[in-house]
Amino acid sequence: MVCFRWVSVPELKYSLYAGAGKLWKLEETAAGIAWAYDVPESMTRAADQAAGFLRLGMVVSIVLGLLFIFLSFRVKLRAAGLGRMAFLWNAGMTGAVLWWATDTNSALNLLEGRENNFLNLSLYSHVQLTAVAYLQILIALLLLPFLKRLLDTRKEYAAEFYQTRTETEDKGIGKRTVLAFVLILTAIPAVILFGIFFLNDRSYYFISLCLIILSMLPFFLVFENRRPQAREVVVIAVMAALAVAGRAAFFMLPQFKPVAAIVIIAGVGMGAEAGFLTGALAGFVSNFFFGQGPWTPWQMFAFGIVGFLGGLIFRRKRGRWKHFRLWLCIYGGLSVLMIYGFLLDTASVFMGMGSINKAAFLAMYASGLPMNVIHGAATVFFLAVLGEPMLCKLERIRKKYGILEP
Fold first, then answer.
1. Quick one: DSSP state of residue 20?
2. How many CA atoms does the CB half-sphere of 332 hold within 13 Å?
3. pLDDT tens per residue, range 88-99
4. pLDDT tens, position by position, 224-261
5. Which CATH architecture fits 178-401?
6. How does DSSP assign 311-351, residue by residue?
7. Sequence ranges of the domains in the chain
8. Residue 31: which of 136, 118, 104 has the closest Cα?
9. What pTM, to 2 d.p., does this model score?
10. Alpha carbon 129 to chain centroid distance?
């Protein structure tokens, strides 16, 4: 990870200096900043001195990593403590580089007479961290709790793989669903806003990867008392593939797509958590055909929340599709119009307008209303046509193979 570029200066993109600098070559980045902003020589010397300390920290990070790799092969579980120290050190390196960038931005703002507020130090900053730096923190958060389990190479007993599963009675919205709902409404929007303010909408692949990981957590909470079976994951993959294929098949008709309808069907037929994961995967994979960009995380979240809420609202209607077809179509149209459209129009303000104010939001919502109406009407149409047959098939698969039981 230390071999990648950690610091980005967008203003140097078309200059003789590199627009992004590596951790052990931050002096070159400091020289580019001095050339672009005509900073005092004392400031450049201070930046070079800080870069020297960061280079020393990088050497310590490499040494800790190599020692951990060596000990993990020799002593297995006893290397977990050193491994945690190495990953925490790497996360601390991100904090140190962020301090260096923030200090540089503060000095540049003072030179230009700008106020050192949150926006000028994040979204409109001169020096920014790339996704590689923040990836260090993500890796540490993911690996620290499970490091001992990853180092344990002993074979598990076969009984752990094939546990007895009994169908449980659905007693309403449980703690697992509430936890998933809180995670979806807090962590995922926080990651998207983090990408806007601290990554300036440039590292959308990194943000999309974080969203996929967070989308998988609520889904795998379904298997809290047993291991997931391959056929259960395959059904999710098939539904996501159908949504991607449906979006590609109707590429010639703007906004007239069956993606939201298929995601809602997945949520209703297989559970709210599965609906969110299907929507997130469909938004990410389909954009490999339609084009990836800073809008991808917003689409992933919007499709996912539509599927999650559909599964949550109609969770007690399984097996009685004919009696609530009308309500399902009404929900599909309103959710696309009021949730998906609202989120994507909000994303357009952050991505395409220089100033963020009330007038910008109102103008974007008004201009996007016709396309949202078309998308909502398409969702109603596809739910009316595909809803009953697909839901009946999913119900048959669920009962026959005993998958995704509550």
1. E
2. 32
3. 998 898 889 888
4. 655 666 777 888 889 999 999 999 888 888 889 999 99
5. Orthogonal Bundle (1.10)
6. HHHTTT-TT-GGGSHHHHHHHHHHHIIIIIHHHHHHHHHHH
7. 5-151, 178-401
8. 104
9. 0.71
10. 18
